[in-house]
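Progress against Task 2.4 (sequence-to-structure conversion) is shown through the following example record, which the project officer requested during the mid-term review.
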Amino acid sequence: MMQISTKWKKSLGILTVVLTTILLIAAVNRKSGAYINEVVINVKKDKINNNFIGEDDVKKQILKGYGNSIRGVLIKNLSLLNLEEVVETDPFVKKANVFVDANNNLHIDVEQRQPVLRIIDNSGNNYYLDDKGIKMPTSKLYSARVVVATGNIPPYTTDFLQKENYALSNLFQLNHLIESDDFLRSLVSQIHIDRQGDILMIPIVGNQKILLGDLSNIEHKMENLKKMSIQYSDLVVALDIGTTKICAVAGRLDQYDKLEVVGIGKVESQGVTRGVVSNIEKTVKAISEAVSICENMIGKRITHVHVGIAGQHIKSLVHRGMLTRDHNNTEISRLDIEKLVNDMHKLVLPAGDKILHVIPQEYTVDNEQGITDPIGMSGVRLEANFHIITGQITASSNIHKCVEKAGLKVADMTLEPIASSHAVLSEEEKEAGVVLVDIGGGTTDLAIFHEGIIRHTAVIPFGGNVITKDIKDGCSVMQHQAEKLKVKFGSSFADEVYDNRVITIPGLNNRDVKEISEKNLARVIQARMEEILDYVIWEVKKAGYERKIVAGIVLTGGGSLLQNIEKLCEFHTGVITRIGVPVEILAHGYSEQINSPILSTAVGLLLKAARNNQYVVMNDLKTEEEIVENEVEEVEHIQDEKPKSFFTSIIKKTKEWFEAEPDSEF
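Structure tokens generated for the chain above:
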């Protein structure tokens, strides 16, 4: 083999270096003289796979200095660093990376900023905060699915994390905590700061509102929230323990604040007399049957029920309370109201009675009268008129005992006429002045409203069963026959019945049939109904509102189904009358079974419970004394039937965390 000389080897190496250099120089020259072929824009989507800017937005940014198109521009005339800076001027862009590939294509990779909180403050400002706490505008292209913060939020400043902007800082910290937990992120949709600076959280699903207060022990509160969310749902159950029926109704509020009833269980009641439990065993059996029917309809086990209470033992009175505050320059708080309400529970009552409801009517602050909500006002002397409802301890204890023996727990207890008023009365009627008359099987419940405030309550010891007994005795028929006569042929106004109508009833044991005049039947019913209406008028006059009931009388309950009863009421009392049916508060598509005054109390209990279930107050595990001394968390828009102390129920029922605020305390 021929050997290549060393001289030729050196020459070949030099030639290779020269050719490589020439090629490199040619490539550079070709590149510098080349043009951009295509522009490839890649906008990296955010963590929930959404874009706040599109390719067109990026093109508009980079075309500002290059005419109508960057395509065809000499590469050597491009400043990639400048292009990156131009793209990053977009408020939605976090970082841009610009480069040219071997095919002369210009690539622009865009990383978007990550909005984590949307702010809508009281001034109407609407913007996002990103994961660094930096302000960014809203996008016309897309609305981020992030938690919305509303309420008493100060204007944004670059030092919003400083102490002077504690409200915005708290929101950002709280949102960071929510974002870091998958469960909480799927639960919360909105954070609100009220006028007192307390934080209110609103879930995505359901109607509960969680009042966190401040951020003290926030991790502990969030753990409690997770436990509660697993244990409870927004579905509530009401239990109406009546003289003729026991009814369990389950439902929830929909997004339009209408009541969606999803389950009904109704059975005959045999252990209750005139609204009071007279046979524990029979009542427990009926409760169990009604709840079981309701459970089968909703497909869930019922553990807590909201119960109504009525009966002849119910009494009401008006009492005035007064509180002298230490400083007149500090605002009246919820704590002051709580102290005033708690003082009412110290009233001396007859032996065996207890307070069921303490309902504020009107407040007076330093001789300024007629105040409905004094919170936020300043003054030394705070006074109030309270409508106080009392009942026998044994009556409420027996209801608790029956519910517990049926394997349930009493969430709270409400006077039945108050519950019925929620179902059948409008706010306009309550403002104008109205008398609610709930004619049940054992009793007739009465409630008077004026200027939107409950003024008087009473229980009349007569109801539909007394009418049935009158028919039985007056017409000499059996009990079940008397009930059928009342329901099918009964009329409460004899003048509206023809004289020649006769009802034939089969005789007993092949005896002759019995004939009863329909007009005589109406006379028996009318006599008893007029007596009940006399009691109603007497109660109205005793309360001093006979000239203040502009909206007249609203009849509800099973007794209101009697024919011509509204005509009799108007004729006998001289006051306009209508039949109250719980329809206006129901969601679309309700069952016809609900569309009856018989279920007014049950539906009212359910509505009241569902609205109370909108609020969950977060508190650390403290004694009642510590809570009273330190702070009382405020929930806005609470119903005016607020109980003695919500926190007593927390200490008694949870012992570990929190629960929804009830309206009644026992």
